[in-house]
Amino acid sequence: MILAIDPGNIQSAYVLTTDELAIKDKGKVENEALLEKIYKVADFHVEELHAAIEMVACYGMAVGKEIFDTCVMIGRIVQVLDDLDIPYTYIFRKDEKITLCNSMKAKDANIRQALIDRFAQHDFKNGKGTKANPDTFYGFKADIWAAMAVAVTYHDLYLKGENENGKQN
Fold first, then answer.
1. Please, which residues bridge with residue 25 across strands?
2. pTM of full prediction above 0.70
3. What is the pLDDT of residues 96-146, one digit of tens each?
4. CB burial class (10 A; 0-12, 13-18, 19+) of residue 84?
5. For 155-163, which contacts have Cβ atoms below 8 Å and span 24 or more sequence positions?
6. Angle, to 10 degrees, between the axis of helix 93-101 and the axis of helix 108-119?
7. Which of the chain's termini has less CB crowding within 10 Å, N or C?
8. What are the structural domains of the chain?
């Protein structure tokens, strides 16, 4: 199982998938609720669980309080994972862009479309489908897409073995 997290300063998004990327759970929740979710997921899947966390990176621009608060949240997530002996890997945005779009110039819309192209079954426009006929990404919104990109990048780089030099924590 892969628990992919897109951390935020107030809320964080997550996607729980099988190792084959079948989506089991998803959401965007308050940070305290995410920490509780990690404990609950660990109760059922601790032996097979891998965590992948989108990590903040410096690109030379000034950042504000939100970024530092997000870094604190990443530390809190890592502490919970360490306490539960769940292995984790940091996934950087640049790795998502290269893995999913083969370009560092990719934007959020490009990443989203790459996910739709790869996983949608019938709604190739937005991958969601309808309530009566849901597709793979039914119920996805905002940062949940980013969490899915983290899961797919982790899968492709570490589980499929495409990055043999990748360091896993």
1. 16
2. yes
3. 999 999 999 999 999 999 999 999 999 999 999 999 999 999 999 989 999
4. middle
5. 155/2, 155/17, 155/19, 155/21, 156/99, 157/91, 157/95, 157/99, 158/50, 158/89, 159/2, 159/19, 159/50
6. 50
7. C
8. 2-159 (3.30.420.10)
